[in-house]
């Protein structure tokens, strides 16, 4: 019945569209194809009405000119089948239908017509049947993720023709048969020399691993074959693929000895070969210097003494050698490996005395020696093993009667992690909403992040997960996603040692996401735009269905004015009758009531007390001396009714207007938008704070307005705009070297004043180039104290992390302890921006890393010549340049204790200017300081920005 009605509508709209297509932007064939797809699906976005998907910006659809180039509908709860009509969309580049588990049926052969397709993502849907061999015709494909469906049959050999594929994920299906390789007439996977990712885990692949599969021409990073039914030996050709970082052949039926040249794989971090029938001697893996995670459990190796080379693997975090015929004593040297976290040696014949030595890794969490022949446990009383779970159950040492030692029983340790709430006031949420880390009630987008091969094994280390949150937030911000915060919880080791985490992504601005928000966030995770820190290894995400779309387009959306949407209105009216009218009426009532409520609230919570009623102009409240109170009427008059012409800026907090006082003086009025209105008390605190600071390099507060439920701050007007506009050339101001030094000095003095001379001292928290303003004489003035915090004697305050990505101090992020050195970090980034004119994060590159890596004191301009702002004239000497770079790099040291104070920064810049002025021809003395660039420390929160793979934008 429903379908019939739908068909009638489609028919109607087809007729109308035929009559009206003159105006439609979308090519007729693309529209027809999309309509056919829509017919096969339920739960398509409600704005899919009319006949012009491109012109009307249908949700999930992107176009180039009149052609549809991208369909992105992840987590939309679509049900139905993928119709073969998809073949008509011949300009399609991206098809992402991931996380729609009610999308069933087979993948149509006709998919092969999409010659321009680069991304095919059907993760975690309900697809069944064989993979069509025509898939090999998709020559442009770079990204193929069909994992977590129920595809069956063989891997089509034609996939080997996809020579541009970078990411191939067929894991977690029902695929069977052999791994296809080429033989002159048919293609095979061995031809995929550019592919970095082979993800074939958890299928039913059988037969031998062909030795032809691997060669030195391959550039694989991840070879994942875990959880299949493969037999025979691991071929020695595997040792030729030098690029490998993760190798998984665990949970198969492999047999025979391991190839000796595995030892050549010096980049491998995770090697999992457990649960097979491997035999012969244990290979000597001394050469695998990068190895973090080694699991050889449950094989049939020759009985051997504990291999001494294991104690030489400096990076080892995890050693799993359960049931591997190990005998003799464990050398104490194993426990001094500095990174060691987990050692599982159950079910072996280890005997003698357990001696863990005098220096044990402080990261060790688990030592499981169940069912061995350990007779004694010697423990130096100096050694603290309280954090280590030692299990000796079923060893002679535990069989003496009357011994009740902790290590003779298994305690269920439970180190569950949940993102801690930020320092904010908890509120009670309605039963279906969830409290975000920023204490807002909302409907998050949820799902499971699964890491297929982490290089660590602990799950109780908060720093590790805090880093993951940070990198997630950073990517969401970098790609402008409407995300307020993320929370991670319940880390758990799933089957085949995958690490699963529950991810909740909270919306910003409102309490729910719209469809575009969900599908674009899901796409970032489905197509691996988001890259976690390297230690997490390969991952995939499975999003839950999002059930909280509010179809608010009628209430909030722009009034459809284009002629091409006539059809939509006609079709809508035909279906919905006068529903539209009712909705509009409701909307009016809603807005009216909101206004009334807002008035009530603002009346009740007047923090300035009754005598502060705007009608009485009582200006003698002592704390607020220096700041004048303006009425709403005044604000309106001075800004010409907040006219568009006077709007000079906007941001998360609201808008900034230029205004003119009756005496002609210019002012800037910052008007908070409704969502960012803070509590009255905080507003008052901020004003009190601001009215106490007066410095030539700080934008001064002239007054405020707190009336009609609005909050406004009135500042002096600073004529030459932001430093960002000046550096980017937008404001047309030429910044020569001396001017840059002077601007840096001004901003530094302003900050120094806040840190050292304000009482109590103030941390700005949001230093960035858009918050440094330039007056008519290019004097720098620090602005925007919205996030500023006074701090007390402790020297730091623990607080919810806020600030701007790129400028944000990584240490502050990790410890949540804010000190004035966090401002120093941001200032260092600002200094780098001053010389390079680059944004802190640009095209996935983080300025701090880029500069640190490029610095070479033996070259001109410290090796930075290529990246200097081209508008800096290099013909005239840049006095103090090297010192300036030194100072910037010191300021962005990872550890706050290595950063200078703002006071020192001021003196140094004064020095540089002095040098330049006093003796313009003097070369600045070179300093001997060097830069330790910490490589390989994968915990650095900005690590994410060093991955060089940039995938095509959808
Ligand atoms: C392992 O190989 C290294 C060199 O590759 C060698 O120095 C060491 O003696 C070997 N160890 C064993 C136990 O064979
Ligand atoms: C431990 O086992 C090895 C080999 O099985 C044997 O040679 C040795 O004597 C045993 N040591 C002790 C202390 O039992
Ligand atoms: C967590 O991991 C990091 C990096 O491996 C390490 O520096 C830190 O000490 C660990 N914390 C704990 C409590 O083990």
CATH architecture of the domain at 723-950: Orthogonal Bundle
Low-confidence parts: 1-22, 552-623, 918-941, 943-954
Specify the CATH class of the domain at 723-950: Mainly Alpha
CATH superfamily of the domain at 723-950: Transferase(Phosphotransferase) domain 1
Task: Give the termini separation.
Answer: 37 Å
Alpha carbon gyration radius: 32 Å
Give the tally of β-strands: 50
Helix-and-strand structural type: alpha/beta
TL;DR of this structure?
The protein is of the alpha/beta class and 954 residues long.
Description:
By secondary structure, the chain is of the alpha/beta class. Helix content is 22%, strand content 21%. Among the domains are: 110 residues, Alpha-Beta Plaits; 89 residues, Phosphorylase Kinase, domain 1; 228 residues, Orthogonal Bundle (Transferase(Phosphotransferase), domain 1). The two termini are 37 Å apart. The N terminus and C terminus are likely disordered. One 2-acetamido-2-deoxy-beta-D-glucopyranose binds next to helix 3.
